[in-house]
Structure formats: C-alpha cells, structure tokens
Amino acid sequence: METERLIESLKHDLQPVRPLRSPWLRAGGWLLLIAAIAAWPILQFADLATFRLRNGDPRVAIETTATLLTGLAAVVAAFHLSIPGRAARWGWLPLAPLAVWLASSGVGCLRNGFGSIGRSRWFGYDIDCFMFVVMASVPLSVLLLAFLRRARPLAPRSVAMAGGLGVAGIAAFLLQFFHPFDVTVLDLA
User: Fold this and answer.
1) Tell me: the pLDDT tens digits for 32-78?
2) What residues contact 136, with CB distance under 8 A and at least 6 apart?
3) How far lies 27's CA from each of 22, 52, 76, 84, 122, in Å?
4) What pLDDT was estimated at residue 178?
5) What is the C-alpha separation between 75 and 85, in angstroms, rounded?
6) Using N-to-C axis directions, what is the helix angle for 23-45 and 156-175, rounded to 10°?
C-alpha cells in the first residue's frame, strides 16, 4: 500500500480522544472515593477513643501523619508519573514522609520489643494486622488501577512503585484506627 493511501485510510478511521483530567483531579477523586468508603467502617467499628489516646503520644502522632502523607504523596506521584512526558522527579515526592514514617515506626518497634502485646509475635495480633493491611490493599489497588487505566505511562514500573507505596501508606493509615497497640515489625513489613 502506498504511504499516502495508508495515511488517508488511517485518517478516515480516527476517533476523537478524550484527554485525561489533571493528575491532581484524578488523584483527588481517588482519594475522596477512598475516604468515603473508609468513613463508614471507621465510624462504625473503630475505637476512636483509643485512636485519640494513642495519637496523644507525639511519636505516634508523627508516625500516623507521616503514614498518611506517604500514601497521599505516592498516589499523587503515581498519577503524575502515569502521564507520558512528566518529570521522573515526581517519584521523589513521597520519600521524605516515607523516611519519617519508617523512622517513627522503627522507634515503635524498638519500644515494644519487635512484637505485639500478649500473643505470639508472628501468629497473634500481628497476623491479624497483616491480614487487615492485605485485605485493605486489594480494593485500594483495584480502584487505583481503575483510575489509572487510561494512562499510558512510558515508565510503568515507576507508576506501579508509586501506586504500591501509596496503597501501602493508605492501608497502614487505616490500620491505625483499629490498632490498639504500637506498631510491630510485621505491621511495618
């Protein structure tokens, strides 16, 4: 087929393309949806008095805030990285809150001897918390994939890593509402 005829045939089959919304709007929409979904179980089942009491400790408050900020920053980074031509520097956005989260959680692990209170470190409360994080992460990941589905990133690994970190941060933040004791090694893992 001649080049000109090929171009003509392609031109006639073109469909209009709806541009992606701003990464900020898409990230904000995802985060609002997650907040709306998470609000009911938190208000219905969480021990908010214990949450407030635990967050009265400045280290725990810093840890909780850094966990949330890591999740938020990583989700925003994932949406920015999903657009071809966006600067790879967006991948660095969650690193500062991640460092604070890991440091403050590490102190918590040291404080409680790397295990949880009163039950086996690997098969007691820790496994329940691990299962909570896994069970929260699955729907968060599916929804994030749904929101990112139209993007065609040039560096999909960067998007996946930022999205995975964002989901981990949000799931770990949600765990804090149901977590009556300090963070453990398995929680952090």
Assistant:
1) 999 999 999 999 999 899 999 989 999 999 999 999 999 999 999 99
2) 170, 171, 174, 175
3) 9, 28, 6, 16, 35
4) 86
5) 18
6) 20
